[in-house]
Amino acid sequence: MSKKLIVNTELRKLIPDLTTEELHNLKESILADGCRDSLIIWHDKKSEPEKRHCNHCRKEVSFVLSDGFYQCTECQTNFAEIDYTIIDGHNRFEICQNNGIEFQTIERDFDNILLVKQWMIKNQYSRRNLNAYQRSLLALELEDIYKELAKSNLRLSKGHGIKGSEISPTVKIDTREEIAKEGAVSSNTISKVKRIVTEADNKIKEKLNSGEMSINQAFKEIKADDKSIKLKEKKAEYVEKFKGELIIIPEVYKMSCQDYLQTFEDNSIDLLYTDPPYMTDVTNVPDIKAFTESWLPLAIQKTKKSGRMLIFSGAYPEEMEAFLKILRAQDKFIVDCPLVWIFNNTLGVTPKMHYNLNYQLIWHLYSNESAPLDTSVTNDMFSAQVKNAPDARIGNKLHPWQKPDDLVIKHITQTTKKGDMVVDPFTCTGTFLIAAGRLERIGKGCDVNQVNLDIAISRGCRLMNNKQETSSIEELSSIEPAIDAVEPNTTASIETTQSINISGGIKKDDLLDIVGDVEDKNGNKLNVCRSSRELLPLTVKVGQGNQLGKNSVLHKKDRRKIKKMFQSKS
Prior knowledge:
Blueprint: E1 4-6, H1 9-12, H2 20-33, E2 39-42, E3 52-54, E4 59-61, E5 63-66, E6 69-72, E7 78-81, E8 83-88, H3 90-99, E9 105-108, H4 113-127, H5 132-160, H6 164-167, H7 176-182, H8 187-199, H9 202-210, H10 215-243, E10 248-249, E11 251-254, H11 257-262, E12 269-274, H12 288-302, E13 303-313, H13 317-327, E14 334-335, E15 339-342, E16 359-366, E17 384-386, H14 405-415, E18 421-424, H15 431-438, E19 442-447, H16 450-458, E20 462-463, E21 470-471, H17 473-476, E22 491-494, E23 500-503, E24 506-507, E25 512-519, E26 525-531, E27 540-543, H18 556-569
Parallel strand pairs: 1-8, 2-9, 11-19, 11-20, 12-13, 12-18, 15-17, 18-19
Antiparallel strand pairs: 2-8, 3-4, 5-6, 6-7, 10-24, 13-16, 14-16, 15-16, 21-22, 22-23, 23-27, 25-26, 26-27
Helix pairs in contact: 2-3, 4-5, 5-7, 5-8, 8-10, 12-13, 14-15
């Protein structure tokens, strides 16, 4: 008589899947010759209750196992089929079931399911051509089984006053080394697979299972992924740390340095602090001399004579010559002996014909009208300044030629005071402007590379709309809608949405006080705000919420009302 067979999902997972070819060959063999090998089955007798319900007797009765059934000891009626679990032959069982082919079974006796698992794994080792990954997975299962058996033995020994070894003398609690030997792999391989199981994605696991990828290849991939994730976390932590320390939000524009410098009045910049492309990076111009001539004279023109200039450059002879040609021809600033930034942590491959270049120059320009340097830290006043370059391994490097934060902080502290304007026409990822904002300086800059600007924005810079036009006080009255007079020493930026911003630097968390309400011609309430901080120039926003609607127009009387309110609040 046939028995009722079931597939235990937990046990089925211990059987590595056959390849498509293996499954096809097995099916062809069974269809041609029948199922020659018996299926191995198991019934968990130890977990049977003492009594079961007999439908004939209509009560709980004692029973015996009889040819695949539970038989009542009182009426000798078979009242339920016994569930037998397949522990070997799952693929054969499925093929036979689907094709109506008979098969034989052999019942094996085990005390518990842990011992069944142990037998199944060792049976797979001896019968199948498994790859190293599959054998290692089974070894890890075996390790967990032995741990559970050890716990079970310990509980039994405590409960019965006997040694665990007396409960199941055939079970040996293997070490990782011994388990590896059983699986015919090394203990190091087991360790790698253990990490792969928890960290690799399904795609990698599928390749391992099919043999397309080796364990070493997979391990290298997850190590690289792990390193990449940790590095991203470190970078995010680095960015957020300094972003949280910003006091004045720097402004950045996407435009060329030449066009950007033209937006400044002559002699208006307190510190021009920048790191332009080196001669190895310059493109779209004939050479470094032409590139330097395109922007450096303009930068000198826009910087206050009472201000300073700090410009990084490579130490290549051609690049130094390009700078010196311009710097020696001007008479606005004194050209100091260049500062030297020395870094010892990015040496690269040692050259054979020349020395490894591990420094850059910093051109320092000042005049007799410049304020004295902050020399409060004497050891910081040497021309040669040794600071390690940002290191990608610790997450503080966002660009190949990014400058170290502590060096930048030192330069800005030494050459400026709070409220000064620091301009970087080669902003890149915003290192100089972020440092300025942290030190309560007004940072402004530009770059032509959107990728670099996106990094600067993520660090806390604010990207300004290049369609906004900066107007003088005299020009402001011609722009609609606008306030017909503004506070002195402020600029007006008219946004495309027709909102009005009158501001100098923008201070982070600058709370805006609502100083009054006006209505547009449609009767909509318009909020009028001014900066609550006296530290910075006036900030004005007019609009429903934060912006004036595109179709809203202020009446002249309302503009006069706004002007009057701000005059009374100033």
